[in-house]
DUF5117 domain-containing protein
Amino acid sequence: MKPTVLALVSASAAFLSADPPPAPVPQPPISIVMAKEAPVPLKPYADVVQGAREQRGLFTLWRKDDKVWIDLKPEQLGPLFFLSWTFPSGLGERGIYGGMMGDSHLVYFKRIGNNLQLLAHNSAFTARPGTPMAHAVADGFSDSLLASAPVVSLPDPRGKGVLVEANLLFLKDLPMATLDLEAAFRQPYAMDLPNSSFASATAAPDYASFQVSAHFSMARPVISAAPLPGTLEDLRSLFLGFRYTLAKLPGEPMRPREADDRVGHFVATVWDFTQDDRPDPRIRLVNRWRLEKADPGAPLSRPKHPIVFWMDRNIPEKYRDAVRAGILEWNKAFERIGYKDALEVRQTPDDADPDAHGLLHASIRWFLGVDAGFAIGPSLVDPRTGEILAADIAVGDGFARSIQESSREELPQAGKAACRYLAEGRDELAFGADLLEARGGMEPGTPGAQAFVQAYLKSVVMHEVGHTLGLRHNFRASIAYTEAQLGDKAFTDAHGIAGSVMDYTPVNLALAGHAQGDYTMATLGPYDYWAIEYAYADLAPDREKADLARIAARSETDPLLAYATDEEAGPGIAAMDPEVNRFDLGQDPLAYLAKRIALSHELLDRLQERTFRPGDDFRQLRRTTSLALNQMATATFNAAKYLGGVVCLRDHAGSARAPMTPVPGARQRAALKLITGSIFTMDALRLRPEFVSRLVVDPFDRGYGPVGSFPDFSVSARTLSIQKAVLARVLNPFAMARILDAPEKTRDKDVFRLSELFDGLHAAIWEELHRGSEPTATRRGLQKEHLRQLIALVLRANPATPDDARALAREELELLRRQLATADRRPGLSRETRAHIAECRATVDSALKASMQRASL
């Protein structure tokens, strides 16, 4: 019987509270003289491998029982090889999943006496061979030792190779999975070498692979705020799969292509110290596959070696057509630059090893996890040239369940950084499906719902394949098309719903009664064709630099090629460009945000009108309500980016556009009106009591996890959390500083003033003071939060807070003191409201008194 979590935590508490062991008795220092060990005599090659099974390939492997030896020939000592690893098996939770791609190194073997070292070559810092700076680079930057093992045999009389025990090289935690386990669970797991073993070892002409069953264990759990593993039979023991691939690099390095910041590609950064006439020694090389025409003279030719995507056997058959279509859609972009069938798709047979590939291929696989609702498209590159050598797209099974889940509410999970399109898009998928179902005709399990999921999956696969081709996110692509174009089905069929599949596009939902285009990206956008052209066009070496500059400059005159990526989208309050968002759509982002708020209200209204038959349960209502509230939170938070917003472009000298342009005053006022009229209004998010009383948690989850521990659903608390986030966004010091600085960057006289922001917030948040009405509990919470943030500006201001912002905040407190002085004298107010007014008045008085005392010091 498994121990309960409570028992384990209790045991841990007892362990931590036990008396500490006695301190060690100090001992006098000991002088240690290291004696030189006598060398271990090497055995004849044949004696070591006697009874072992031989596999020939790039490296000859010998295996006997639990031992694997690798034959290293003299010519294999020194040259670079490509070492990569994947994770064939995992835990199914918190970022540790089977089927994930790991990392890679350029490595080489070095023999020192009878010791063999496996070293990672530091290829990021270079200088032209033979120059004085090449010697300086060698002296200035270190390689890294990954593993070492003794040589155990004399040279083979036939091939002159010597044997090294591969167990000592690869039965190690080279991926540093211990750190992943520590980050996920905060428990002292460590790799248990005696119980780790090789699951397989394979020799092939171009590579050798070693699959390790790595055992991790801990003696006992410790008390931690992080949840304990929930997918293990015994949380003290777990196995992870590592698959190491040691492969031959291409014989001739690929000719690199320098990146341009106007086009979004992943890059390999190389520091070239050959000359000191460049202000920045860093060179950014586009990550791309090696692609060459089989017929260089033909305008359209097949490639010598296509980019092959292997579809893993674990992809459900009902989704394989959508996955295949998402991959092959990219052939349209390559055809435009002269390549026919640049991408090929092959199905891995059911009886084949899904990882039986070396380099120069891509895989797409399905993985499972109790919290796996994301997709990821990483690739491994030759850091010297940017050549992509392998890629692995992994799609989480959970996304397809999104439109059929009940009231399950999920929190963000720990794990590795990844493309969040599918993970964050699950809410989009579910919101769109729930709204369409509420309108009628999209019930789960119907052909319409299945087509909806298939179309969304194709768009996600296109996005992730774009990553494996070297393309970064483009979060400005969503502003490409007008509202009328987005509602035209023929237009969206031909052009998509955004300028690029590399954006995070929401479900394209029309208002009720309006024309409806495609719900998701059905094809590539114009930006995708352009980015592929920059990376893969066949250009003459003597004209490449000029041709690339010409290609990149097209973005300065063609709005369909607009580009901005993760840095501009930000996280949180760091973002300042309101045109760069995740999950927005249309040429007018502010209008889109207003539409999303309207759609959220439509969904909530339809939910409140829903009738139930005897036996129906209410669990779906809670999840759908959360989705609608999340939409409002995202919309109002993004609308706040207009306040102090600056549109930032990547144009180079010669462009007619300014790189930085403050948002016009009229647009900022419109954004403030949208925010105050939707989330700071007196009637924000009022739902019928009989509806709120049905927002129950799944009884099976009650008492488990962060949501099940709080089965009650508080609309007031959820509303207040949205209001707090938006209020903090509009009053953050950097946004206020940009409002004040706007006149420095524009000749527009109609600038938005910081005083307008303070006045607008006051009028919306304290409306009851002017009307003489009773504030609800939610409104009282918002008013106290507004006071807290004003007081923080006055007494605990961030060093970046402008002086004018502090002065306006103090003026606002003075105004509130005067208004609150008589507010509780009005008849008919509840005791709660009178207490609220009295507390606010006392809080303001204390803050102003502290402000005066501070100013007099």
Summary: The two ends are 67 Å apart (CA to CA).
